[in-house]
């Protein structure tokens, strides 16, 4: 029985790895919003007057909340770009093992970035190394894609 293009696409080990790690990263980003809200309640630090009104709290800034919020913003800046670049990279027919390794390392780096920035607050250069790892992986895949499609 002949496979359709869609079935071959979904059953491809390369794209299955891509879809797995993109899904993990999407869930990570989804978790960051409630984590920010939980942290706001825990430290009673709300951004808007109406958010703390029922507790009779005025808006205030808290470092714990800001760390979680900034970690989330960093995800928003880096993960969507990775998703696009990684998809294009998949179109260059890379080794499945190599591409999967890059996806895994990027995903681990994003989790490590959040842990060292917002959860455990580990001093620099831990956060810089985690961010830089993801940055260089995305850059590498973009460069490889450019070279593939340029020639």
The secondary structure category is: mainly alpha
Basic shape: elongated
Q: What is the total domain count? A: 1
Poorly predicted tracts of residues: none
Q: What is the CA-atom radius of gyration, in angstroms?
A: 19 Å
CATH architecture: Up-down Bundle
**Topology-level CATH name:** Four Helix Bundle (Hemerythrin (Met), subunit A)
For the largest beta-sheet, the strand count, sense and barrel status come to: none
Alpha carbon gap, first and last residue: 36 Å
Going by CATH, the homologous superfamily would be Membrane associated eicosanoid/glutathione metabolism-like domain
DSSP strand count: 0
Report the β-strand fraction as a percent range: under 5%
**What percent of the residues sit in helical stretches (DSSP H or I)?**
over 70%
Which H/E pattern describes the elements?
A: HHHHHH
**Assembly state:** single chain
Give the rounded overall mean pLDDT: 90
Classified by CATH, the class is Mainly Alpha
Number of H- or I-type helical stretches: 6
Question: Can I get a quick summary?
Answer:
This protein has helices at residues 5-11, 13-43, 49-52, 63-90, 96-119, 126-150. It has 151 residues and is mainly α.
């Amino acid at each position: 029985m002949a496979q359709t293009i869609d079935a071959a696409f979904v059953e491809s080990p390369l794209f299955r790895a891509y879809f797995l790690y993109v899904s993990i990263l999407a869930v990570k980003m989804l978790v960051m919003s409630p984590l920010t809200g939980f942290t706001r309640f825990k430290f009673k630090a709300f951004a808007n007057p109406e958010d703390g009104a029922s507790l009779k709290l005025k808006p205030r800034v808290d470092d714990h909340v800001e760390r979680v919020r900034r970690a989330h913003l960093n995800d928003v800046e880096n993960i969507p770009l990775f998703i696009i670049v990684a998809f294009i990279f998949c179109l260059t027919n890379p080794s499945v093992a190599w591409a999967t390794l890059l996806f895994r390392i990027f995903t681990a780096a994003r989790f490590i970035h959040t842990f060292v920035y917002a959860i455990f607050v580990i001093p620099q250069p831990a956060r810089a190394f985690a961010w830089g790892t993801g940055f260089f992986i995305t850059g590498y895949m973009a460069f490889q894609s450019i070279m593939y499609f340029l020639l």
